[in-house]
Design goal:
Elements lengths: L1 H32 L8 H21 L1 E2 L2 E2 L1 H28 L1
Antiparallel strand pairs: 1-2
Helix pairs in contact: 1-2, 1-3, 2-3
Length: 99
């Protein structure tokens, strides 16, 4: 069980890092959307390709709130939920397998 415990802890840690990085990508994308970015810029293209598949379905369901797109906020809240519930549970499960 020792190896399985470390496996679950490692998976949870990597998932936590990936979700934290994606949160920053969402924040940067939202901040860049406030200005008129060059759509041919490689960074802008990357941000659009990385965030739009996740934001589009939420944007379609919820729309805008007074002309403000709140889909990044909703995705960030969902990420925080996954980090605090799912990933924390995986880490605790892994640590219980160690002993």
């Amino acid at each position: 069980m020792f190896v399985a415990g470390h496996f679950f802890i490692s998976i949870a840690t990597v998932a936590d890092i990936v979700l934290s990085a994606y949160t920053w990508i969402l924040i940067i994308s939202a901040l860049i959307s406030w200005v008129n970015p060059d759509p041919h810029n490689p960074v802008v293209k990357f941000l659009y390709l990385a965030t739009e598949p996740v934001l589009r379905p939420i944007r379609r369901r919820i729309g805008t709130l007074g002309g403000i797109d709140i889909s990044p906020v909703i995705v960030i809240l969902l990420i925080r939920f996954v980090q605090s519930f799912v990933i924390a549970s995986l880490k605790q499960f892994g640590s219980r397998l160690l002993y």
